[in-house]
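Input record (one chain):
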Amino acid sequence: MLSSDVLSHLQPLIGLQFTNAGRASDLEWFSFGEDRTVYTDDGTTKIVSDYALHVQCAWRICDSSRILVASRDRYYPPDPTTEVDSDFDWDVSGGNLCDTRIHELIQAFNGQFPRVERITADNVGSLTLFLSAGIVIEVFPDNSYLDEDSEHWRFFRPFIKEPHFVV
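The corresponding structure, as predicted from the sequence alone:
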């Protein structure tokens, strides 16, 4: 994977707002651009963004002085003062520190979502999105084992059936 390939595929993000994030098990999704209503294959509708980044490797969101939320936060209870016990189920929606901090971050934007200003990438699949308001989203593959089903992250337009850019 060449960094130039990553940068050319992610170029449409420049100028778009980072509007939402969420989780499906250990996959974190980040939304960029305007929301739109689309019909699903079963005839129902759902809201999607112009672009989606689905991440299945390590990631974090920082400001200039601290990590605001990171991928490993999903393995801790929503209250960081609570001790993790053997009964803790991290995969319950809204039931972990990551879900709580993502929700708080999106709410803190108060509708003034930061825009992607610049993107950097390297040749091993890492990428950094520099947003306005000093927010940075970093994605970094964190394993060396790869097979034909391995995936670190993918970038796509969720309202169009077209090939995804997969790293």
